[in-house]
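re: ur question from the group chat, yeah i did fold both. here u go
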Amino acid sequence: FSFASPEYKEKLMPDFASTVYDRNGKIIGFFYKDQFRLYASYREFPETLVDAVITAEDERFFEHKGVDPLGILRAAITDLAKGKIVQGGSTITQQLAKLIYLSPRRTIERKLKELAFARKLEEELTKEEILELYLNYVYLSNGAYGVRAAAWVLFGKENLSELTLAQCALMAGIIRGPEYYNPFKHPERALKRRNFILRRMLKNHYITKEEYEKAVQEPLTPLEKPNMPRTAGYDLDAVKFEITRKGIVPLKNLYTGS
């Protein structure tokens, strides 16, 4: 695939943590400011992860132009019935617009701005770039922002290529409610949500019956508790001191992954 506007995409990227390795390539810890987020390019996303996210959040993502009239119509019917905005009918592009530019407040004015931003994103970026941004921004519970940070926190995995189908489905399912579907705090909810995504993936022909049956038997996560990023210690202080002393990178860049 081609990038429509790499400069525009780079401007929209959030800050990422800097990862510190020892001489053997083992992770010692991380430097970051507010949000634990590790960068992953679109090429690093497993196909099963992309399929799971589209299944969970926006089944017509590759067909629409940022706004899905069918989704909006369904949401509008629900909103009218409830007398308030309870469903957004938001596409992945609209969700990205909200993550980058807008507050989470549900008002008509904010919704109109979201639609305008979504259209601009679709004009300036390819679908792959939009997904890359989205999966680097989105919050996935336990302090993990973006899918690569979530792979580390939820499963103890450094590389997205190591994720199983079931783990991809769980992460995709968590997007809708990061705390509600937190696999460590609410394992029953998380399991039900994961298996729902897997059933939808089977129905949409992303996976086979055999793959589905194997995935639903898998435990939620191999970890007993979240794998929280280490951010302090003598060794990390020594690294920070040496980097600052030698002027390798400005201290602020160390905490933004730039």
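okk and heres the other one u asked abt
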Amino acid sequence: FPVTIDDLEFEFERSENRASPLFGRSILVQGTINGVPFEYFTTMDEFAVELEFEPPVDLTVAGGVSVVVSIDLAAIFNPLQGGVNISGARDGNGNGTIEIHLLDNDGNSALAGLLDDAIWKAIDTIEERWDD
């Protein structure tokens, strides 16, 4: 049967799965800063990446169509490539994990705001690149 796609939208929202480390969060990044575990998360809710097909894609004619959406993590986390420098983040509450989010107890909420902004910029870049 004929299928035509005009646009494709990926929506992000907070996880409702209580068993998941993502519970109550929409994005979670874990790693280390100078050997100390860190986690950055955001609870930004209901944001989306929308890709529009001009002209619309007819899947009947095209056969297999693949769409790859990639987020450049260097653009978010690597200051040498325009990202946010998180090397100064600290474990302010001394629990052994550097927490970076808007309501953290470690004192890294300003960094969290910068990372949130960098993610929005990355999403805008995806949409702009797609539209070109």
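fwiw on the second one: The two ends are 30 Å apart (CA to CA). The first helix runs from residue 59 to 62. idk if thats what u expected
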